[in-house]
Design brief:
This protein is α/β, with parallel strands linked by helices. 39% of the residues lie in helices and 19% in strands. The chain is built from 13 helices and 16 strands. The strands form four sheets. It has a six-stranded parallel beta sheet, with helices on one face. The chain has a five-stranded mixed beta sheet with strand order 2-3-1-4-5. A hairpin with a 2-residue loop joins β15 and β16. It is globular. Bound molecules: NADP nicotinamide-adenine-dinucleotide phosphate. NADP nicotinamide-adenine-dinucleotide phosphate (NAP) binds next to α7, α8 and α11. NADP nicotinamide-adenine-dinucleotide phosphate binds next to α7, α8 and α11.
């Protein structure tokens, strides 16, 4: 039986530490957790059982292991210190007997996106970002259909368009849309991406460093590595869809509170095949996982025990390949959630009605 391990880490420090250590989560402040995480060793979280391929019937098992650093710690500490802790966590995966290792959330963002970590470990490594791209774009397509937004004429935006995930999402969406804003902080990098894609894509591409252009977009895919939210209620037009792939989130909780005419969906939730038990609650309903976890699982099921997605330049070819592998074994885009709650057809209909009313008032 092939095996895998997946590295998670605290993102919302108090909430996530409480999932494993309820007492410490209650006792310590966010700042204290940040501080102590520097000295904490890697943590064994749980064994994962019951993932079964729908095509081959083969089963795999795996483990969640945790790198104790919070996103803030990973950005504040010297890169070498962060690499050392992630590699230490990878060594725990090797001792458990994992055949492949996935890097969750910020452990795949830091530095060169897994290259140094993979070179220092014997176990093959993947960031999971190729399948994250595929599922994020699928989610935008599906949400557009549910909200009656015709893709061909739509104006969309990718926020974090210079990032590893953002760049390929922009490339894929640009084939299908009318107009696409590439949003980021670095104008030169954005123009480079526009120039690279221009000519081979359908959409008109507009680089921008201003979030207020979001008010022109009906579809927004956001995937920055910002520690704080970057999308606020005043940025958005009624009836628009925002797919938030970033962890920590890019969309302010104020959007949910103040804008009931917007559909915000969490990017990256996937159905896992088989009677899976994670033996750990990471905030999803049973049998659902993040796309980056699913990439690691799909590779283990397929026997592709090799370094897979690494580095800041994800290729479209890899995205298409992992999509086919994952689909073959029974993984796929799951239903939508928004700020950790299920999005029902009634919720979508209510958003559409409020958006129609708001647009009539404008
Ligand atoms: N849901 C999932 O399954 C899943 C899987 C993997 C990763 N993720 C999440 O995806 C996000 C991005 O990952 P990545 O690997 O693509 O990261 P990345 O390559 O480092 O790219 C990050 C992007 O965010 C931008 N950015 C950073 N800080 C910002 C700020 N304060 N305001 C605006 N833009 C900012 C960067 O712009 P500059 O070029 O200006 O620096 C860059 O475009 C992370 O939050 C990660 O946790 C989610």
């Amino acid at each position: 039986m092939n095996t895998f391990a997946f590295i998670i880490h605290p993102i919302d420090p108090k909430r996530d530490v409480s999932r494993k250590y309820p007492f410490l989560g209650r006792l310590l402040s966010e700042r204290q957790i940040d501080f102590f995480s520097t000295y904490f060793p890697p943590v064994y979280i749980s064994k994962i059982e019951g993932i079964r391929s729908v095509s081959s019937g083969q089963e795999i098992e795996g483990w969640f292991i945790a790198c104790p650093f919070t996103p803030r710690r990973m950005l504040e500490l010297p890169e070498k210190t962060v690499y050392r802790k992630i590699i230490q966590t990878g060594r725990l995966a090797e001792r458990l007997g994992a055949d492949i290792l996935g890097l969750g959330a910020f452990t795949s963002v830091v530095g060169d996106a897994g290259l140094t970590i993979a070179r220092s470990l014997d176990v093959p490594v993947t960031t999971g970002d190729s399948y994250t791209v595929y599922i994020a774009v699928q989610a935008v397509r599906k949400a557009a259909e549910l909200m009656d937004i015709p893709l061909k004429q739509a104006t969309a935006a990718v926020v974090g368009a210079t990032g590893s995930i953002g760049q390929v999402c922009a490339e894929l969406l640009a084939d299908e849309l009318g107009r696409l804003f590439l949003i980021g902080r670095n104008e030169e990098k954005l123009r480079e991406i526009r120039d690279r894609l221009a000519g081979s894509t359908r959409a008109e591409l507009i680089p921008s460093t201003h979030m207020d252009v979001l008010s022109q977009a009906q579809l927004i895919l956001t995937v920055t590595s910002s520690l704080h939210d970057v999308i606020h209620p005043e940025h958005l037009q009624p009836g628009s869809v925002v797919c938030d792939v970033a962890r920590p989130r890019d969309v302010s909780a104020m959007v949910a509170a103040a804008r009931n005419d917007i559909l915000v969906i969490d990017g990256g939730m996937v159905d896992v095949p088989g009677p899976v038990d994670f033996h750990f609650n990471f905030g999803f309903p049973p049998a659902k996982a993040y796309a980056c976890m699913a990439e690691t699982m799909a590779l283990a099921l397929d026997g592709r025990l090799e370094d897979y997605t690494l580095g800041k330049h994800i290729t479209r070819k890899r995205v298409e390949e992992i999509a086919a592998i994952a689909e073959r074994h029974g993984f796929g885009l799951s239903g939508f959630r928004s700020f950790e709650r299920e999005v029902t057809p009634e919720h979508i209909e209510a958003v559409r009605q409020r958006a129609r009313m708001a647009n009539r008032r404008l």
